[in-house]
Fold:
Amino acid sequence: MARSPAFDRLKREVLSVLHDIPAGRVTTYGAIADYLGAGPRQVARVLSSLSEAESEGVPWHRVVGAGGSIRTPGDRQSQRLRREGVHVTAGNRVAGFGALLFTPG
DNA sequence: AAAGTGACTGACA
DNA sequence: GTGTCAGCCACTT
Structure:
């Protein structure tokens, strides 16, 4: 839930960026943060605040950690990625990360 | 007010 | 390859 206009604004911008990521591609917290002029932790905080209903219409699973590592708890993200044709290794890493990386802007 | 915490990152050992 | 540390910033105790 939004506790400040700033948070709402950041959330809207993050979701907007997510919408521009093509299916089958991924980006990182740092890339989004850099593009929006925010900190990586702030981006992570936005995603962690998404409700179940929100996450249904938002491709949040296309956001991975630096180097293609999956930092989300559980295996929900890797499953959604595989469903899009992205190969995730047993070590929770996106295979061919360099080629799949999408940079906003 | 101070300290702990986290869906982060880059540097270093 | 793994582990630790210092920045980082907003939130919670």
